[in-house]
């Protein structure tokens, strides 16, 4: 095991920060993550974004956090308090992930998959592994290029016997039992 014992610099210069960011990206490539599409509706327009930077935050109250780049189309509606749904994708739904991660823009992101409206507000993917409907509690935290948005869970729909879509080392895969 290697332990770096250099003293921590007070301020990192831009070059060193970029180098650390690249090393971090490289280090995280081996971390398998579930793939989700975060959706919301704001002022009559639907938004969708593929994400792996999601996590449960608390079970009391049940809540989730999502990390959204400030340049993403989903950022503005969430920053204005739009409620959202975390649609956890199944192994066969990589094309939906691709559509919502840059292949398509705006409403065309909803042309693949069976998207339904919800009485709770945000659209949801009918055959996702799970749909987690969240009330945006407008407690968001800005850090660097991203904001963290917190949502209190209002409803969860779960599909039985669905294999999750996993993203690792720059590609999609499936979870295999040992």
Automatic annotation (TrEMBL):
Organism, as annotated: Hyphococcus luteus
All copies of domain Flavin reductase like, residue ranges: 28-174
UniProt KW keywords: Oxidoreductase
Taxonomy, superkingdom: Bacteria
SMART domains the record matches: Flavin_Reduct
Lineage: Bacteria, Pseudomonadati, Pseudomonadota, Alphaproteobacteria, Parvularculales
GO biological process: pyrimidine nucleobase catabolic process
Name of protein: Flavin reductase
Record-linked InterPro entries: Flavin_Rdtase-like_dom, NADH-dep_flavin_reductase, Split_barrel_FMN-bd
Gene Ontology terms for molecular function: FMN binding; riboflavin reductase (NADPH) activity
